[in-house]
Each structure stands twice: as C-alpha cells, then as structure tokens.
What we know:
alpha/beta; D-amino Acid Aminotransferase, Chain A, domain 1; D-amino Acid Aminotransferase, Chain A, domain 2; 2 domains; nine-stranded mixed β-sheet; four-stranded mixed β-sheet; 7 helices; globular
Amino acid sequence: xxxxxxxxxxxxxxxxxxxxxxxxxxxxxxxxxxxxxxxxxxxxxxxxxxxxxxxxxxxxxxxxxxxxxxxxxxxxxxxxxxxxxxxxxxxxxxxxxxxxxxxxxxxxxxxxxxxxxxxxxxxxxxxxxxxxxxxxxxxxxxxxxxxxxxxxxxxxxxxxxxxxxxxxxxxxxxxxxxxxxxxxxxxxxxxxxxxxxxxxxxxxxxxxxxxxxxxxxxxxxxxxxxxxxxxxxxxxxxxxxxxxxxxxxxxxxxxxxxxxxxxxxxxxxxxxxxx
Length: 275
C-alpha cells in the first residue's frame, strides 16, 4: 500500500490529494447550469473564461478535451436541469507545491440536480467592513481559493436570507459571495468595473454583450464605479449569476431598496432562455 488517507476518521480515496486545485488552490472553477438534455446556454462565456484562466495560470488546456470530458459526464447523468461544476487545475508535479509552467490540465467535473427555484427570488444585502482584496494578475478569475471572501463573511454573520456585499479598499461596490451586482438607473444598467477585485461572471458578460436586446426595453449596460449611496438611489438593484439568473435585492443594511418591474422582466427572460 503506497498511500492511505482518512477523512474525519474514515478511509477515503487518497488520489484526490494529488489534485493541486484542491490542496494548493492552484486552479479555477466554473459553476454552470444545464437545461433539459444537457444543453448549456452560457457555455460560450464559461469557455472563454476557462481559456483566459488557463493562459494566466500557465496551464496547457486542451479545450476540446475538456469539452469531451464534459460531454461524457453529461451523458452519464440523468437528472436535468443540473448544476455542473468544472474545476481546472494544474497536473501534479514532482516537488510538492512548486508549480511547473505549462503543465497539462487536471480536470474535475461534478454534476448534481438543480434545486427548484422561484421565478423571481429576492434577498437582503449586508455590506462588510473588511475590504475585498484582489491581485492584479488574477482579477476577474474565479479562483478555487475563496478565503478572501470566506473570512470577512464569517465576521459579518450573514443570515440565510441575506448576501454579503463586498467593497474594495476605496469603498466601491464589488460583488457578493456568489453574484455580480447591477443597478437600474433610468434606462441604464450599471455594474462595478472589477478593476481592483472580483469575478467577471458569465451572466454579467452576457448582459454587457447585449443579451437582453430582444426585449425592446431600450436598456444600455455600462461599467461604472458604484458606492453604497448609488444603490440606495437606484431604481432597482439586482444580482446575477449563471445558476440563479436574476435575483432581486429588497434591502441594504436593513434599509429598503426601490423595486422595479424591469427586474422581473429580466428574470422571466432568463428563466425562458434556460428552460
């Protein structure tokens, strides 16, 4: 026996301890939503982000091979719609934590049934005092290392019906733990720039690409620096990600925020596209 591992006193597969993404946070992950029969409406954006991450982290990613792994995994799963998680890491090296540039990719794919979700859910926001710190090289990437998010949120004692709102060192709004954020101001949708910190979400990218232009709402989508006052003065505030779609925000720091029918229209459009 060359290797033996225990988790909470019980034997488990020790091979996962070779996955650098899991033990050294040397990698990124994607969480995406599939429709019936495994169709992936947002795959173009997830694919782009994976390729960009592999370039930044100097991992040799064969995207066609990853797509083969993904297709194979979907074929083995029968419960759709589904939540799919892809973890992209660097293949194990020979010297512990030392990383080899242009190492081959180590790919993990997990699937589970998508929980039932309301057409339009809402949540409360609680801003955190501790700023979210980013690194210029990896800004925008969805890194496996989530400690910069986890530690401030623990101190914030976030309730189950709330989301932690992260600010950067300049007190500009960044995002929540799992979502990008938008505000509606007239016919403009504004979202933080993420230059200092944050993850460039796939639904955020789609909205910036004009994803909802077919709705005829005449909305413009722009990147801007936003403070807490901008959220209080907005016509509506909502969160986005590839699983929840559009999530309305009802309050910030226990103060109510304005609501607008446009948010419901956007949410219904997302649900239709992902049905």
